[in-house]
Protein backbone atom coordinates (compact mmCIF):
# COMPACT_ATOMS: atom_id res chain seq x y z
CA UNK A 1 0.00 0.00 0.00
CA UNK A 2 1.28 3.45 -0.96
CA UNK A 3 0.21 6.80 0.51
CA UNK A 4 0.89 10.04 -1.35
CA UNK A 5 0.59 13.24 0.63
CA UNK A 6 0.16 16.53 -1.26
CA UNK A 7 0.22 20.06 0.18
CA UNK A 8 -0.69 23.01 -2.07
CA UNK A 9 -0.79 26.73 -1.52
CA UNK A 10 -3.46 28.71 -3.38
CA UNK A 11 -4.27 32.40 -3.78
CA UNK A 12 -7.93 33.41 -3.95
CA UNK A 13 -7.83 36.80 -5.62
CA UNK A 14 -11.52 37.71 -5.49
CA UNK A 15 -12.10 36.86 -1.82
CA UNK A 16 -12.86 40.06 0.07
CA UNK A 17 -13.23 38.46 3.51
CA UNK A 18 -13.02 35.12 5.32
CA UNK A 19 -16.67 34.34 4.61
CA UNK A 20 -16.09 34.59 0.85
CA UNK A 21 -12.93 32.48 1.11
CA UNK A 22 -14.71 29.76 3.09
CA UNK A 23 -17.56 29.65 0.56
CA UNK A 24 -15.07 29.00 -2.25
CA UNK A 25 -13.19 26.39 -0.20
CA UNK A 26 -16.31 24.54 0.89
CA UNK A 27 -17.60 24.22 -2.67
CA UNK A 28 -14.29 23.08 -4.17
CA UNK A 29 -13.26 20.70 -1.38
CA UNK A 30 -16.70 19.07 -1.25
CA UNK A 31 -16.60 18.45 -5.00
CA UNK A 32 -13.08 17.00 -4.76
CA UNK A 33 -14.13 14.62 -1.97
CA UNK A 34 -17.14 13.45 -3.97
CA UNK A 35 -15.33 13.03 -7.26
CA UNK A 36 -12.11 11.38 -6.06
CA UNK A 37 -12.90 9.95 -2.60
CA UNK A 38 -9.78 11.59 -1.09
CA UNK A 39 -9.13 13.07 2.32
CA UNK A 40 -8.76 16.80 1.66
CA UNK A 41 -8.82 19.82 3.97
CA UNK A 42 -7.55 23.33 4.55
CA UNK A 43 -4.45 22.94 6.69
CA UNK A 44 -2.95 26.41 6.73
CA UNK A 45 -3.66 30.13 6.53
CA UNK A 46 -7.14 29.78 8.02
CA UNK A 47 -7.01 33.41 9.19
CA UNK A 48 -5.89 34.84 5.81
CA UNK A 49 -8.69 35.69 3.40
CA UNK A 50 -6.80 35.56 0.09
CA UNK A 51 -4.47 32.68 0.82
CA UNK A 52 -4.99 29.03 1.74
CA UNK A 53 -3.05 25.82 2.12
CA UNK A 54 -4.78 22.59 1.12
CA UNK A 55 -3.62 19.10 1.98
CA UNK A 56 -4.85 15.79 0.61
CA UNK A 57 -3.84 12.16 0.72
CA UNK A 58 -4.21 9.40 -1.85
CA UNK A 59 -3.96 5.73 -0.89
CA UNK A 60 -3.25 3.24 -3.66
CA UNK A 61 -1.85 -0.21 -4.34
CA UNK A 62 0.97 1.02 -6.56
CA UNK A 63 3.07 4.16 -6.82
CA UNK A 64 2.00 4.73 -10.44
CA UNK A 65 -1.68 4.54 -9.53
CA UNK A 66 -1.14 6.97 -6.61
CA UNK A 67 0.70 9.45 -8.81
CA UNK A 68 -2.01 9.28 -11.46
CA UNK A 69 -4.80 9.88 -8.97
CA UNK A 70 -2.95 12.72 -7.21
CA UNK A 71 -2.29 14.37 -10.59
CA UNK A 72 -6.00 14.08 -11.44
CA UNK A 73 -6.94 15.76 -8.14
CA UNK A 74 -4.43 18.57 -8.80
CA UNK A 75 -5.79 19.07 -12.32
CA UNK A 76 -9.31 19.20 -10.90
CA UNK A 77 -8.29 21.79 -8.28
CA UNK A 78 -6.50 23.84 -10.95
CA UNK A 79 -9.64 23.86 -13.10
CA UNK A 80 -11.41 26.35 -10.81
CA UNK A 81 -10.90 29.97 -11.89
CA UNK A 82 -11.49 31.30 -8.36
CA UNK A 83 -7.96 30.47 -7.25
CA UNK A 84 -4.44 29.88 -8.47
CA UNK A 85 -1.96 27.30 -7.18
CA UNK A 86 1.45 28.68 -6.30
CA UNK A 87 3.32 25.92 -4.46
CA UNK A 88 2.99 22.16 -4.29
CA UNK A 89 4.86 19.68 -2.13
CA UNK A 90 4.40 15.91 -2.44
CA UNK A 91 5.65 13.09 -0.28
CA UNK A 92 5.35 9.32 -0.25
CA UNK A 93 4.60 7.76 3.12
Automatic annotation (TrEMBL):
Signal peptide: none
Any coiled-coil regions, as ranges: none
Pfam families referenced in this protein's UniProt entry, alphabetically: DUF503 (PF04456)
Name of this chain's protein: YlxP-like protein
Amino acid sequence: MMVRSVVCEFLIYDATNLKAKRAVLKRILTRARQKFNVSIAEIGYQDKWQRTEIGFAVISDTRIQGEKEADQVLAFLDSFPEWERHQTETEWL
